[in-house]
Amino acid sequence: MAKQCLECGEKIVGRIDKKFCSDGCRNAYNNNVNKDSKNLIRNTNNRLRKNYRILEELNPDQKTRTSRGKMIELGFDFNYFTSIYTTKAGAIYYFVYDQGYLPLEGDYYALVKRDS
User: Fold this and answer.
1) What is the distance between the alpha carbons of residues 6 and 67, in angstroms, rounded to a whole number?
2) How many Å apart are CA 98 and CA 50, to the nearest integer?
3) Which contiguous run of DSSP H or E holds residue 100?
4) What is the pLDDT of residues 7-54, one digit of tens each?
5) How far apart are the C-alpha atoms of 94 and 83, rounded to whole Å?
6) Alpha-carbon gap, residue 91 to 69, rounded angstroms
7) Is the pLDDT of residue 1 over 70?
8) Which of 22, 30, 62, 71 is the most buried (most CB within 10 A)?
C-alpha cells in the first residue's frame, strides 16, 4: 500500500517512514499546524526586541536613570519583560534579557545592565 503526502496527497517514494513528498510540502504542513501560535510568539518577540532596543538606547553607560515618560515616549511597553530579580533588600528589578530597570520614586527608573 503506497503512502500519501500529508500535505498534498501525492504518492510518497522513498523511505518507509517518510510523511511528505518534498521539503516544500513538509514546510507548508508545519507552517499551517503552527500558524496560530507563531503569530503570538512573533508579536511577543517583536515587543521584547523593541523594549530591549529602548533600554539599550537609554542606558549606554550600563547604569543610568530615566523617567517613565521618556520610556513611554520611545514606545516602551511595561507589560513585556523576560525576568524579575528581587534583591535581598526587597527591590524588584525587571529585565529584558540583560537590560533591566528598577522603579524609583516619582515615576523614575534606574536602568542597569546585568554582567554576562
Assistant:
1) 54
2) 14
3) strand 99-103
4) 999 999 888 999 999 999 999 999 888 776 677 888 999 999 999 999
5) 6
6) 21
7) no
8) 71
DSSP labels for 56-87? HHH-TTSEEEEEHHHHHHTT--TT--SEEEE-
Burial of 32 (0-12, 13-18, 19+ CB in 10 A): exposed
Give CA–CA dist 88/116, Å, rounded: 20
Residue 98's Cβ-side half-sphere holds a number of Cα atoms within 13 Å equal to 8
For the chain, the average pLDDT equals 93
Tell me the whole-structure pTM to 2 decimals.
Answer: 0.70
Buried b (16+ CB within 10 A) or exposed e, 1-30: eebebbbeeeebeeeeeeebbeeebbeebe
